[in-house]
Amino acid sequence: MSGHDLLGLWQFPFVRHALLSALLLGPACAYLGVFITLRGMSFFSDALAHAALTGVAIGFLLQTFWPGLPLLPVVLLFSLLLAAGMARIAEKTTLRPDAIIAFSFTGSVALGVAVLSKLGKYRLLDGLLFGDIYASGTADLWAEAALALALFAFLGWNRRAYLLGIVQPDLARVEGLPVARLNLLFALVVAATVTVCIKMLGTLLLSGLIVIPATAARLVAKNFAQLTVIALALGGTAALGGIALSCVFDLPAGPSIILLNIALLLGCRGVGSRRS
Amino acid sequence: MNSRPPLPACGCSDCGETLPVSHPLRAALAADRVLLRLENAGIRYPGSGEWAVHGVSLEIGSGEIVALIGPNGAGKTSLLRVLAGLQPLAEGSLARLRPLRVGYVPQYQAFDRNLPVSVLEFLSLKFQQEERGWRRFLPIGRGKNEEKALALLGELGVAALARRPLGSLSGGEMQRVFIAYSLLGDPALLLLDEPMTGVDIKGGSLFRDLLLDLRARRGLAIVMVSHDLHMAGGVADVVVCLNRHVCAVGTPAEVLQDHVLAGVYGDKKPVGTAAMPLS
User: How, if at all, do strands B189-193 and B102-105 pair?
Assistant: First the structure.
């Protein structure tokens, strides 16, 4: 496919929607990823992404009683409850966070698959696991734009609290910052992101969109400003480029985005090791 | 858990021991000098509910340097955390006798040493609330208070660290940067928890000079927890010897006496404290 042909794809609404979706979510998820990776919560975002499958299954179950019920709020509510539940268990017990995450997400995925199976919707599993960014509609784009705006506003506004919390939480507490409440809110923001983005990349690949750009950026960044700028650039490039790759090589969009992210990460590794 | 526990056997005469330990108590400060006043304060360890210290009455005056000393588990850090507002009192009262800005330098900076945050970026966090426009949300470009942070690093003798990653600093450098962060809030009281951890002998001497200099130029009151009795003796105006309660309060010359320390530290009494150089 030539460059001219590629530009010609712009006339198709589903391609336009997919590119806009990538442009909104790629950088926004990368910015979230900066904080997730610095806070050591990569596994947490992965777990929430997987567990969102159960939210969808519960949504389908509720639709048997209320046929018009939209899925998105149900998935969001389930993800929020799961995130809050994991945070609560971590606060109230001596269990290690990785153990809490592991049993929470495997348990909820098992429940989701069981419910989907009983509802006869097992065939929908492919779409839920891998997503389909080309299916983004206008309503999805509005939701994604709102999420991107909310992510930049929330994380930017609370940057001081989260970075102080990473370096030394007591410094944040002495300054009167509500550390516990902000930790809970952070978990809820991750849950909301997963819910909105699940349609784009599915539960299996979604955390890659969040975590990989920041991880790659960290290989070359010398300070937080560089980390942020590079992660945003990589996130946007991989999301847009992944869609272009999927069009050129007739590949599914989700895996194309993640594979391009991995290629960029390897490139950053090369640059980083040459510097050192 | 509401009743006061029996006094722990710390070895001093308050605990019923027969050792000849003196308990010099300094006179009350003039009212206009007092920044903080603890009265009969009791603190419990979070979680276990055990008493960390109790019965502590203490005044901190403006411009004075107070060293909290005592063996491990004596309640020094718990007391400092109460002064910082990080922990509540289980009994007694803490009065801040004037509007008081407090700077706090914690004991451990156990963060990821590969954290990609420069010293200047860390210090600039102090001013993030004052940034306007997109800088409020993204850490890009020059912050309007960077000059102030750079000047402060210069004042502390570590201007060359500004662009260095926070995690690459030595113990002494890290202490100065954390003190710089605290000073950016223009505190009247600076609380230091074990500031000598990871600092070598030369660094300790420089650090002592730094504290005296800060007090002289800024009129700061400083409360520091220290295991280093030489440091405490060399820099403090007042030494508070703790062992789950106040065993002795006074000048270094009054408190850092062999017979006092023997009562508190027992067999683990630091060697040679009687010959300690006192300022």
Answer: parallel
